[in-house]
Every structure is written in structure tokens, then in C-alpha cells.
Amino acid sequence: MARREATARAFVHQEAAPKTSPAAQPPMPNPSHALQRELAQAVAAGVFEPGAYDMTQRWSSRRTAAFVVVTCGAFWAGVGWIASRLL
User: How many structural domains are present in the chain?
Assistant: First the structure.
């Protein structure tokens, strides 16, 4: 019984390993900071200025409407198929 108490006491008084400070660890890459840097470079390069894009490559209204109908139709057909399999 004394041995069990000594083991329990040793377990309770176990010290945790010392934690390293955040400054000692190498910095992890941050995706949000990378995106902010890229955006700042794009703004500095004038990418978002009026006339920076070639607007002659726009889709016609008919092509845009067909794209919307096909993609939305495919989505809802998939949802309907999944619902029919579950019910």
C-alpha cells in the first residue's frame, strides 16, 4: 500500500517539461500575410486601375445565360439525385 501511495504522490508532483518561448520557435508561414503582400504589390503595379483589363474578351449575354443555366441545372440535378437516393 505504501508503494502505491508513493507512486501516486510521484505522479501528482511530476513537473511538466518547460515550454519554449514563442520567440525561440521559427515563424510559421501565414497565408493571410502572403495574400496581403501580393495584393499590395498588385495595387502598386496598377493592376486595379481603370482600363487595366482587356474588356473585348467579355462573354455575350446569351453565353453567360447558358453558362448559368447549365451550371445551376447540373447542381440541382445532383441535389435531386442525392435526395432520391437518401429517401
Answer: 1
Put simply, whether the predicted model's pTM sits higher than 0.85 gets the answer no
Contact 52, 46 (CB under 8 A): yes
Residue 53: inside a domain = no
Q: State which residues form the domain around 67.
A: 63-87
Query: Over the range 43-76, which residues count as b (16 or more CB within 10 Å of their CB) and which as e?
Result: eeeeeeeeeeeeeeeeeeeeeeeeeeeeeeeeee
Helix intervals (H) in 1-60 = 2-12, 31-45
| Spatial separation of the C-alpha atoms in residues 8 and 1, rounded to whole Å | 11
pLDDT average, residue stretch 24-37: 83
